[in-house]
Amino acid sequence: MRGFTRRAVCAAALGAAFLPGAHAADGMRIGIIGAGHVGTTLGRLWAQAGDHVMLSAKDLSDAQAAASSLGPNASAGTTAQAAAFGDVVVLAVPYGAIPLLGPALNPAVAGKTVLDATNPYPFRDGAIAGVAGRDGAGITTQRYFPSAHVVRAFNSIDMSSVEGQAHRAAPLLAVPVAGDDPASVQTVERLVRDAGFEPVRAGGLRDAMQFQPGHIGFELEDDAVSLRRDLHLNP
């Protein structure tokens, strides 16, 4: 996923009307910020489950190309359009884009669930990765989206595993979910199930640090019973 520039995000924030084909009565509406491997993998699973996704990217043509491969439940738009479209807004960008996207999109996500599937890496993301490594990525993302309810999920499992193990035979692969707003956590748990996995509630945003890079829960591929044991969660 190519990086976002301030100019591009600010221009996107002025976005025009939504593209047609994304609005339907059934299924959840999901705006995805990012049309790379993470955004398209999750978008495909949700679209197949009957949810309605709008992919966005720095270059609209990239989002359009990705959306065209996901079937009739997918469309493309600017970042601003995707943020306004979604009942849930998914962050699927390099973590270094968070400080820029937050101020640009925060008004559009007021009161919404923001599913943060990003990970901070110092070699790629600069100083913000150090802050997220110290304070926790969930806590740090919430600072940039103060009007929204941030929930961490889908950041701890490689997307190749997500592609390969969605809807596998029981026991399902477990996905840890952490957030401070109970209703938003429940919403993300539904999306985890829609994608073909079993959600495991792992606490609040501060607890989400345990499944970000450098911590015990990162890249664990377990069923729910094993994941709860490994993260020292109550059964």
UniProtKB/TrEMBL annotation:
SUPFAM superfamilies reported in the protein's UniProt record: NAD(P)-binding Rossmann-fold domains
Keywords, alphabetical: Oxidoreductase, Signal
Q: Name one Pfam family in it.
A: F420_oxidored
Q: Which GO terms describe its molecular function?
A: oxidoreductase activity
Entry-linked InterPro entries: NAD(P)-bd_dom_sf, P5C_Rdtase_cat_N, STEAP_metalloreductase
Q: Where is the Pyrroline-5-carboxylate reductase catalytic N-terminal domain?
A: 29-120
Signal peptide annotation: 1-24
Q: What is this protein called?
A: Oxidoreductase
